[in-house]
Task: inverse folding
């Protein structure tokens, strides 16, 4: 066969297509090698043809999608092994052919060797963790993979880690995007020089094979695509095709990873036009190819080339070679009719349903370039591949392949051009897509790689009209959702706006395109092209005008709106992203003088667009009432470019301003917004729902304010500086609807405002004026000053964390320009204005983060209430700033009372805006100020302190900004003559202040008091006219003023006057005389502003003549006017400051002030003012009294509460200082009295109505976590580090129990140890008591409570009714006295032998209990139920250790172990020893006494068979023989020396009838101590080596006959050694034993210390027990004397014991029977066991007694070390990388949070682990979020983070990605809560986890 093939190959004739099927199975490698050889010949035509044929066959076999055309082909597919098999076969062939006969892997390695790896180019998809370093980045989009980042040097840089949202690629090595200093080690070398040239033959085969392979892929894509039917989205089919193609695309992707050499081959293949033409023209005879070409054409045609005339589309489809594209464009444009409104059908059917009555508007206009939208001609594989990538909605695999090729420069350019060519098509696909989010991400993933590179962007802009394409595409995209604007003139409006309810805007579908546009505008060269191109600017302004006036709000006047639309989100996002961000991008290139031309262009086209807009909405001069839009992007473009022009380009402002009429129009809408803000805050829009408030907030919110409210206010400032000030001021008051309020009369009618809104609207208008006049953001402040002002404003509202400061300070929305928060200036300004408060821990457990708080001098000099008002989203923040300011003044002693907002000096105005200050010097404003001052003085209604404050602020502003000092003489001369028509002589505030106004004529309602008070003048007509002529009485109408001014201005530009005077739209309310019942009255005023101010001073201070000019005493004041005492204070201070400034400005004023003060000022209308004054005085007095009363009440309440808490806590611990005389006054010992916190009654606990303690039962494994070494365990952060739990307390006890159970009788084993190291039940109480029946009804009411609680009532959980502490059971209090004081006070003189007998008898007496169990009382029922609760608290596996399930021994063991657990835990809470002494730390809160009663009651149900009672073994000698018998057939009992002494103690005590007598207790302790001591000696003897033993045996034997031999450890030790030597215990010592034995030489001191350490744990637990049972205090002591102090406290030490010579532990022994006899009896048991099992016998003797305190794992300093190791670590159970990895901080286990993969019986892994590791308590660190989560039983809570950044704040979810460092204090707090079991009490936010964590 092979020969035949070879012959066929050798011949020149082409190979026969009828080659039989098995031919394919030929040895692929041989064929490949042969073909390679053939192709290497100089004349390789034959080889090439043969290869083509082979590929044709192999690859066409690979077409499972098109049902194969001929049968032979199906046969060729390898015997019909199904499509999958055929594909694999084809891939195998390709690999073989590429490798040219060699192995594919070797081929890969060979190609890699030629990789000039200058770029990293690693491509990643969403959710990948990458880094961004702003210090190294040139482009803001720069990103690095973790490997490159860690290999580069970024110390001290401004970097952060982030989770990629859309995917990205590593830029390491690309000097266009980042600085070379940041490259990592691998990509620093410019390595192209030393890489050898690629040998020709290595890649030769690839050049032949790949074109066919790619073509085959394209054919696949063509055939797989079916145009989705109109109604059914066919994503399923597309995905199917993509799945089939997975291996092919992966193969291509692998090729790209082979490095530069292979990439350049692929680039050739993808961009070669000839190849493409040959293969895809479809002109061949191959039916299949033809068919696929047809499908391609159909797909092209249906791809959104939806130009209405079909013929045209075909004409455009393939322009014949002759016609130039330009001609085609012209042709396309001509067909569009200009501005025709036609609603195309195709658009209507897919979008009309959500729009209701609004008809969509479609624009088509000839300015646009149709060819951009509709022409696609593919000339290479790359182009068609991209086409299909888009068609299939950017499958991830294809995207990754296309991006992986980018490091190849040639490809990068070609691909970018192709991408641009398909841009319009991308937009159309995106619009139709159902998965627009995913698709958007993928698009940006590609485009960000292409457009971030300035060089490339410039090239594409020049060669492919990138800018035209982008702008046109955006325009087209928005055109699909336009509607008619309803602003202003609804009927005749020609303006169209985008409809914010459309999916396109609602889902932000446009953002990929906009973000690309912003990205390319950030490049200077591209932005310049844009700013120079007039056509583009016109189109762009056209685009921006679509957003002008969108989302119009109409005020609901009647009923509440039914449906609150949420479209405003979409509107604000659209304006910010589509209009503002490109604007900021452009602005960043207009920074220098040379760029003036650009600004002129933008301003020019902006004004044209605005003019068109005003015409389109039919705007004359009055805005339509009750409607507002927050979106005026054209105004804002105009404003921002003006600002830039003046600030940076030194342009003359007037050269870019329009005429007066245009300015008047420009100011209307921004002013309308300011007035609407005031209306919204006054609740006038309340019927429009919450969303309107949302809009008002968003408008000023930090991300939006500098693109919205700031430009608006700046534009108003510009208008104000150029328009007539009187016109401007009156417009403001008219817009704010408060004109009617500004009258001298005490009553008025307001036709447009309800009375309740008047005050807040007036405040709004004045506040707006203050902001307008004092804000300098665009009027001359430098960037650093702005940043400082913003920062101060934010800090004054609240202390802030670093990140919230960055968040709240308006950043430049375009990341490339201006101040980036976090940049150098940010940090330096921050350190100048704020102090850092390190994170603190409040005792309540709430953890503060690191905060910045303003420095004192900032409060003193820089606090600027105007800036605060401008920047607050919530009104309460202004209050908060004022409160903090007040607190500062009180604290620093600057001002005690309630201060007013301070007046702050402003930075000087830029000369261009000087005109703004004319507002302060216009008569209109002065009249308003005068009127308001007068009204305030006269106590008219609706005026607040805020109004006064603003009025004074404006006066002060006017004085600060007055013209040069006027000459007093000149002013005084021409005073009277000038005031014919007006109130005031001139327009200068300084001179107007002293101008007296005598009479004012007002229009008032007939009911007003002014009418009745007929002034004599108004009776006779002539006197009236005389008044009139003298010009003293004026009536003043703001509106009329404004009309007059407007007419003047209009007439000035008279050319168009005739067209302007249209009918006025809204004079419904304008004329003040419109209400009929108004009448005219004349008021006598006789005041000037100065006199009003002085009277105001009297009124505010509540004293007559309170004002005294300060300069009369101290002339200095006039020379240096800056006096600190005037800086802070209330209204009085403000008035004084103003008067001083007025006096300074002119001598006349000074004189007049002095005059006014000299006349003892009579109050104006005497009755009224005194009344008012009296009222205020009374008010003050009353207030003061009320305050005092309140203080008194509060104090009383606090002391009551305190005493109550004390009594409540005292329930069950005796008063510590009970005097010893109690013994004599014995009869008084009364029963304990308890208060029920539910019903409030107090009384003793009785059997019928028992009282109980509120307790929380929880299973705990904290004890089991104790280890025996001091070195704390570290959290593993490398593969090598592992944590093994062998050395934990729990593990050691487990091993011991199972060892005992192997060799001894089960029931006896269960008495020899304690359990509960893991899963022990811990009982804690808050100390409050309640009747158990009250508790039941309380639980019932909780059950019926519908409120969501954080706990589960069905599980018996509740919160203490008094202190709200979490609890889940009630522990009954045992009737009787609290402490059996009468029993323990009298020491009995019985001998120890008698006591031992008594103890034995008492234990033997079953149920000798005061309450006999047989009679079921309420108490015993409750005791049983609480016992059940205790059992159910922990899992079964932690209760059942017996080999026979359900044996009573189990319960017995469990019960005394509960007592053990609680005692051991209390010991740990005290720090592991009792040196501190004192009452229990939880003294008043301990429930051990009650717990003991409950346990004892139940223990007595199980009487131990007296045979087995260990008490006998301890106190009696047994005859030796009978112990020998019976041993053979059954397992022996546990030898007494193997028993755990503490367990024996608890068993003995709980077996005794309660209450226990003190002497019995002491007796038990003495007996057990002898056993314990013997155990210590045995352990010591086992630990030391042979020689030591012999020596001791010897020395001790000598002293054996001394009198106190039984109390000498040497004698006892030698006896123990000699006894045990009889057995095999010591014999086993081979060499391996020596290693275990400590080599230290034992000195008497070290032996004594060993014995004491061995016994101490027992003494500690016993002392605690004694403390709880008998209420004795624990003495405190030094650590070294703990043993002696405790033993004397327990009565082990004889009282006469002298302490001179060193203390010896043996002196505490008190043997009940002769020591040597009983010891030898005990040792005998050991010996008989070690006969058989010496090893185990020895292991059981050595007990570890000294456990260290439990600790959580030690964490590394830097969070990154944890993150890098764990976030990619695979889970041991499912071997996948978990989505939410977590690690247990107790044992270091790695778990999947919420991972379904590791679920077992509906429990997720974390919950399961919390049960196994912590018996229901788990502490997990969530790796991806850096937070700690606590699981407690069925609830969980987020605890917070123990890792903080450099500014002391958490970074939950690692959103900011800054480096985090361990906060040791927080970790200590966490550990403390774990050890003390207080998670439930301290953390408040618990929720159920439903086993899903």
Result:
């Amino acid at each position: 066969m092979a020969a035949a093939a070879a012959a066929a190959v050798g011949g020149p004739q082409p190979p026969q297509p009828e080659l039989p099927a098995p031919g394919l199975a030929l040895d692929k490698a041989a064929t490949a090698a042969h073909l390679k050889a053939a192709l290497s010949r100089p004349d390789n035509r034959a080889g090439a043809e043969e290869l083509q044929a082979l590929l044709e066959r192999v690859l066409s076999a690979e077409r499972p999608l098109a049902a194969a055309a001929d049968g032979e082909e199906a046969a060729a597919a390898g015997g019909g092994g199904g499509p999958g098999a055929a594909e694999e076969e084809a891939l195998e062939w390709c690999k073989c052919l590429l490798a040219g006969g060699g192995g594919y892997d070797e081929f890969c390695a060979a190609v890699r060797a030629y990789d000039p790896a200058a770029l990293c180019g690693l491509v990643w998809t969403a959710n990948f963790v990458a880094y961004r370093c702003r210090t190294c980045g040139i482009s803001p989009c720069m990103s690095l993979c973790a490997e490159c980042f860690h290999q580069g040097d970024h110390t001290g840089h401004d970097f952060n880690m982030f989770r990629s949202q859309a995917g990205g690629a590593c830029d390491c090595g690309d000097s266009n995007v980042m600085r070379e200093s940041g490259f990592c080690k691998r990509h620093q070398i410019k390595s192209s020089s030393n890489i050898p040239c690629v040998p020709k033959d290595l890649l030769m085969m690839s050049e032949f094979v790949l074109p066919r392979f790619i073509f085959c892929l394209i054919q696949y894509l063509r055939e797989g695509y079916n145009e989705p039917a109109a109604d059914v989205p066919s994503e399923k089919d597309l995905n199917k095709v993509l799945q089939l193609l997975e291996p092919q695309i992966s193969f291509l992707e692998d090729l790209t990873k082979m490095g530069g050499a292979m990439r350049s081959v692929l680039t050739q293949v993808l961009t070669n036009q000839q190849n493409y033409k040959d293969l895809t023209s479809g002109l061949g005879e191959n039916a299949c190819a033809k068919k696929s070409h047809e499908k391609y054409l159909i797909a092209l045609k249906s791809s959104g080339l939806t130009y209405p005339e079909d013929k045209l589309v075909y004409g455009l489809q393939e322009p014949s070679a002759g016609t130039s594209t330009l001609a085609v464009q012209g042709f396309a444009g001509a067909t569009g009719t200009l501005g025709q409104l036609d609603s195309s059908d195709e658009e209507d059917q897919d979008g009309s349903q959500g729009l209701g009555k609004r008809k969509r508007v479609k624009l088509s206009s000839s300015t646009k370039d149709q060819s951009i939208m509709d022409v696609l001609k593919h000339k290479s594989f790359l182009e068609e591949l991209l086409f299909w990538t888009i068609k299939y909605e950017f499958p991830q695999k294809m995207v990754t392949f296309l991006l992986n090729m980018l490091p190849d420069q040639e490809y990068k350019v070609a691909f970018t051009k192709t991408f641009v060519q398909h841009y319009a098509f991308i937009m159309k696909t995106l619009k139709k897509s159902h998965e627009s989010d995913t698709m958007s991400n993928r698009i940006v993933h590609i485009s960000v790689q292409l457009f971030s590179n300035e060089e490339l962007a410039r090239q594409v802009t020049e060669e492919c009209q990138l800018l035209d394409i982008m702008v046109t595409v955006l325009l087209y995209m928005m055109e699909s959702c336009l509607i008619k604007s309803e602003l202003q003139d609804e009927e005749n409006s020609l303006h169209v706006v985008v409809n914010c309810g459309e999916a396109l805007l609602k889902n932000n579908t446009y953002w990929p395109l906009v973000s690309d546009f912003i990205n390319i505008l950030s490049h200077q060269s591209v932005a310049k092209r844009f700013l120079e191109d007039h056509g583009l600017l016109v189109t762009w302004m056209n685009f921006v005008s679509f957003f002008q006036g969108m989302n119009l709000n109409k005020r609901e006047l009647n009923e509440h709106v039914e449906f609150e639309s949420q479209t405003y989100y979409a509107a604000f996002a659209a304006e910010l992203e589509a209009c503002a961000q490109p604007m900021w991008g452009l602005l960043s290139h207009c920074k220098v003088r040379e760029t003036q031309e650009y600004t002129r262009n933008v301003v020019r086209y902006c004004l044209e667009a605005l003019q068109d807009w005003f015409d389109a909405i039919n705007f004359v001069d009055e805005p339509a009432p009750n409607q507002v839009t927050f979106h005026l992007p054209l105004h804002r473009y105009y404003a921002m470019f003006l600002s830039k022009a003046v600030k940076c380009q030194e342009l003359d402002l007037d050269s870019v301003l329009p005429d007066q009429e245009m300015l008047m129009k420009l100011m209307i809408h921004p002013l309308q917004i300011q007035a609407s803000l005031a209306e919204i805050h006054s609740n006038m829009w309340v019927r429009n729902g919450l969303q309107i408030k949302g809009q008002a907030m968003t408008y000023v919110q930090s991300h939006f304010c500098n693109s919205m409210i700031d430009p608006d206010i700046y534009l108003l400032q510009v208008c104000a500086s150029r328009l007539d000030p009187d016109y401007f001021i009156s417009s403001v008051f008219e817009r704010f609807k408060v004109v009617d309020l500004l009258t001298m009369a005490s009553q008025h009618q307001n036709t447009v405002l309800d009375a309740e809104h008047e005050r807040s609207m007036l405040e709004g208008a004045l506040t707006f004026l203050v902001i307008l006049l004092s804000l300098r953001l665009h009027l001359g402040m430098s960037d650093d000053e702005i940043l400082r002002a913003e920062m101060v404003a934010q800090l004054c509202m609240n202390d802030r964390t670093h990140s919230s400061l960055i968040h709240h300070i308006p950043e430049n929305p375009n990341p490339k320009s201006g101040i980036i928060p976090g940049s150098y200036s940010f940090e330096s300004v921050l350190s100048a204005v704020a102090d850092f408060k390190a994170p603190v821990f409040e005792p309540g457990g709430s953890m503060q983060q690191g905060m910045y708080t303003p420095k004192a001098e900032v409060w003193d000099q820089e606090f600027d209430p105007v800036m605060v008002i401008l920047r607050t989203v919530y009104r309460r923040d202004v209050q908060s700033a004022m409160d903090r300011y007040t607190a500062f003044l009180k604290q620093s002693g600057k001002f005690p009372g309630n201060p007013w907002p301070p007046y702050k000096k402003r930075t000087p105005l830029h000369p261009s805006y000087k005109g703004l200050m004319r507002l302060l010097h216009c008569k209109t404003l002065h009249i308003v100020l005068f009127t308001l001052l007068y009204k305030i003085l006269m106590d008219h209604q609706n005026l607040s302190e805020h109004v006064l404050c603003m009025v004074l602020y404006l006066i002060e502003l006017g004085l600060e900004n007055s013209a040069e000092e006027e000459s007093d003489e000149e002013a005084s001369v021409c005073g009277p003559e000038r005031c014919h028509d007006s109130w005031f002589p001139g327009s200068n505030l300084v001179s107007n202040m002293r101008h007296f106004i005598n009479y004012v004529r007002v229009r008032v309602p007939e009911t007003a008091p002014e009418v009745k008070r007929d002034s004599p003048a108004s009776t006779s007509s002539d006197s009236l006219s005389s008044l009139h002529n003298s010009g003293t009485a004026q009536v003043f109408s703001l509106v009329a003023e404004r009309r007059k001014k407007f007419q003047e201005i209009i007439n000035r530009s008279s050319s168009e006057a005739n067209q302007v005077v249209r009918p006025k739209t809204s004079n419904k309310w304008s004329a003040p005389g419109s209400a009929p019942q108004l009448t005219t009255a004349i008021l006598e005023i006789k005041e000037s502003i100065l006199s009003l101010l002085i009277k105001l001073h009297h009124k505010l201070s509540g004293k007559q003549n309170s004002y005294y000019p300060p300069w009369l005493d101290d002339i200095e004041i006039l020379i240096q006017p800056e006096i600190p005492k005037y800086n802070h204070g209330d209204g009085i201070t403000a008035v004084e400051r103003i008067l001083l400034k007025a006096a300074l400005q002119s001598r006349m004023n000074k004189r007049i002030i002095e005059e006014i003060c000299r006349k003892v000022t009579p109050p104006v209308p005497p009755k009224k003012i005194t009344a008012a004054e009296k009222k205020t005085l009374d008010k003050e007095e009353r207030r003061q009294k009320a305050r005092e009363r309140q203080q008194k009440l509060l104090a009383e309440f606090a002391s009551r509460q305190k005493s109550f808490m004390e009594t409540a806590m005292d329930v069950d611990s005796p008063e510590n200082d009970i005097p010893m005389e109690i013994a004599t006054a014995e009869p008084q010992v009364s029963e304990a009295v308890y208060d029920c916190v539910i019903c409030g009654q107090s009384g003793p606990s009785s059997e019928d109505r028992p009282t109980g303690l509120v307790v929380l039962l929880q299973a705990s494994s904290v004890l089991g976590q104790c280890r025996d070494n001091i070195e704390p365990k570290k959290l593993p952060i490398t593969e090598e580090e592992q944590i093994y739990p062998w050395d934990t307390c729990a593990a050691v006890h487990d091993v011991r129990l199972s060892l005992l159970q192997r060799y001894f009788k089960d029931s006896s084993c269960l008495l020899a140890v304690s359990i509960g190291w893991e899963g022990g039940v811990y009982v804690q109480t808050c100390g409050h008591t309640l009747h158990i029946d009250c508790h039941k009804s309380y639980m019932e009411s909780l059950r019926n409570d519908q409120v969501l609680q954080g706990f589960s009532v069905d599980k018996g959980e509740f919160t203490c009714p008094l202190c709200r502490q979490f609890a889940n059971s009630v522990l009954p209090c045992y009737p009787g006295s609290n402490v059996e004081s009468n029993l323990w006070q009298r020491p009995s003189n019985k001998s120890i032998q008698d006591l031992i007998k008594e103890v034995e008898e008492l234990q033997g007496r079953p149920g000798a209990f005061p309450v006999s169990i047989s009679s079921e009382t309420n108490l015993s029922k409750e005791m049983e139920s609480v016992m059940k609760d205790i059992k159910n608290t922990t899992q079964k596996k932690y209760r059942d250790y017996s080999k026979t399930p359900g044996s009573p021994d189990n319960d017995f063991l469990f019960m005394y172990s509960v007592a053990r657990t609680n005692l051991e835990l209390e010991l740990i809470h005290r720090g592991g020893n009792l040196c501190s002494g004192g009452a229990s730390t939880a003294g008043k809160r301990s429930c051990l006494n009650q717990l003991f009663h409950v346990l004892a009651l139940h223990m007595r149900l199980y009487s131990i068979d007296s045979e087995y009672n260990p008490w006998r073994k301890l106190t009696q000698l047994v005859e030796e023989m009978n112990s020998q018998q019976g041993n053979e057939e059954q397992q022996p009992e546990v030898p007494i020396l193997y028993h755990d002494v503490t367990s024996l103690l608890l068993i003995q005590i709980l077996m005794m009838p309660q209450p226990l007598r003190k002497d019995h207790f002491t007796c038990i302790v003495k007996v057990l101590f002898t056993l314990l001591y013997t155990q210590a000696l045995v352990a010591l003897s086992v630990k030391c080596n042979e020689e030591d033993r012999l020596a001791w045996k010897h020395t001790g034997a000598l002293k054996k006959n001394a009198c106190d031999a039984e109390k000498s450890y040497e004698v006892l030790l030698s006896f123990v050694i000699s006894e045990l030597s009889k057995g095999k215990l010591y014999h086993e010592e081979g060499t391996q034993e020596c290693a275990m034995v400590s080599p230290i030489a034992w000195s008497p001191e070290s032996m004594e210390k060993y014995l004491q350490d061995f016994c101490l744990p027992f003494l500690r637990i016993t002392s605690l027990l004694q403390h709880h049972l008998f209420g004795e205090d624990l003495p405190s002591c030094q650590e070294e004397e703990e043993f002696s102090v405790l033993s004397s406290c327990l009565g082990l030490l004889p009282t006469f014991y002298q302490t001179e010579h060193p203390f010896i532990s043996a002196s505490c022994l008190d043997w009940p029977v002769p020591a040597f006899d009983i010891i030898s009896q005990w040792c005998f048991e050991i010996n008989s066991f070690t006969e058989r099992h010496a090893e185990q016998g020895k292991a059981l003797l050595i007990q570890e007694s000294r456990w260290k305190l439990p600790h959580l794992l030690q964490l590394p300093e830097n969070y990154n070390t944890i993150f890098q190791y764990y976030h990619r670590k695979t889970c041991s159970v499912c071997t996948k990388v978990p989505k939410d990895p977590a690690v247990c901080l107790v044992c270091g286990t790695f778990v999947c949070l919420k991972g379904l993969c590791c679920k077992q019986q509906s429990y997720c892994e974390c919950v399961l682990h919390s049960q196994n590791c912590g018996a229901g308590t788990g502490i997990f660190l969530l790796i991806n979020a850096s937070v700690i989560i606590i699981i407690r039983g069925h609830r969980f809570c987020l605890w917070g983070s123990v890792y903080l950044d450099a500014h002391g704040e958490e970074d939950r979810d690692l959103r900011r990605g800054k480096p985090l460092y361990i906060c040791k204090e927080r970790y200590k707090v966490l550990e403390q809560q774990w050890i003390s079991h207080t998670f439930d009490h301290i953390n408040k936010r618990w929720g159920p986890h439903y086993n899903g964590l």
About this structure: Residues 1050 and 1057 are 6 Å apart (CA to CA). The chain is about 50% helix and 5% strand. The first strand starts at residue 123 and ends at 124.
